[in-house]
Amino acid sequence: MRKTLPLLLVVSAILFSCTNGTKTKLKPSVVVSIAPQKYLVNRIADTIFHVEVMVPAGSSPEVYEPTASQLKLLANTSTYFSLGLLEFEMSMLNNIHEQNPNILIVDHSKDLNLISGQCDSHHDHGHAHNHGLDPHVWLSPAEVKTMVSTIASVLSQKFPEHKTTFEANAARLIEDIDTLDINIKKKLQGIDNNKIFIYHPALAYFARDYGLKQVSLEQDGKAPSMKHMQTILQSAREQGAKTIFIQKEFDVNNAKTAASDIGGDIEVIDPLREDWLENMYHISNLISKALK
């Protein structure tokens, strides 16, 4: 009996080790650029994948540079869904693929209806982004529907054994996006004030979807000049605007000064929250309230 007990313990330990190893291997890794993409992948794939996000919470995706540990993580990744519009994606993805040829890199920007980031004479579209394209595609329900279809299609081809699950979950998610779209249109119906005043121009795609105009305080990626600020504030007064939006990762001082000048206040939003659907309802509610 004394000899049998240690043997049983050894066998149990081996079985436990093998079982844990099997669980790890059965869960492929998928990497995305920003947290809202993680929400989309998880909605489509449920718990089939372990999803990693390159841009951490509180960081600006437009200037973020991945760490060495994140780049090392990509060596064990099966699929990487990129926006294709962020600086680090454009400068690093080719090298990443050369070093890890087994990774499937998906560039969402190839399937989307993109907006130029260049300012027009009325400052309605914000400043120039990388290669002149606005990267904030995930703030458009219409563009996100295309992203959902791409994710489901790519995962179905790479993991055909789960195709039925991917397609069914994607269909449910698209229904949720359609409901969101209807909800936003109802909230904005009959609103005459169509300008959204925002510090950093992140809402161009949302504005295009719903017939609005984005007016950015930020000028060419920098703090606004006095002349630019005066033009924006005059436009805000003419509309009777009382709200200036700003993303949580930006300095609020200029926005607060502008809001105080028009007798209003700032509204902090977080476009990078992981729960994309809930966040879009939240942001659209704030916009609707500001325009009324």
Description:
- This protein has 2 domains: 25-115 and 137-181, Nitrogenase molybdenum iron protein domain (Rossmann fold, 3-Layer(aba) Sandwich); 191-291, Rossmann fold, CATH 3.40.50.1980.
- The chain is built from 10 helices and 8 strands.
- The chain is globular.
- It is of the alpha/beta class and 292 residues long.
- Strand 5, helix 7 (204-209) and strand 6 (213-216) form a beta-alpha-beta unit.
- Helix 2 (35-45) packs across helix 5, helix 2 (35-45) crosses helix 6 and helix 6 (163-188) runs parallel beside helix 10 (276-291).
- The model is unreliable at 1-24 and 118-130 (pLDDT under 50).
- The chain has a 4-stranded parallel beta sheet with strand order 2-1-3-4, sandwiched between helices. A two-stranded parallel ribbon has the order 5-6. Strands 7-8 form a two-stranded parallel ribbon.
Structural class: alpha/beta
Count of helix runs = 10
CATH architecture of the largest domain: 3-Layer(aba) Sandwich
Compute the number of strand runs. Answer: 8
Spatial separation of the terminal alpha carbons: 81 Å
Main sheet?
A: 4 strands, parallel
Shape, principal axes of CA atoms = globular
Question: Which band does the percent of strand residues land in?
Answer: 5-15%
What is the fold-level CATH name, i.e. the topology of the largest domain?
Rossmann fold
Rg from alpha-carbon coordinates: 23 Å
Average predicted confidence as pLDDT:
86
Strand order, largest beta sheet = 2-1-3-4
The domain tally reads 2
Specify the helix fraction band. Answer: 40-55%
Contiguous uncertain segments of 5+ residues: 1-24, 118-130
* CATH C-level name of the largest domain: Alpha Beta
Q: Topology as H/E string? A: HEHEHEHEHHEHEHEHEH
CATH superfamily of the largest domain: Nitrogenase molybdenum iron protein domain
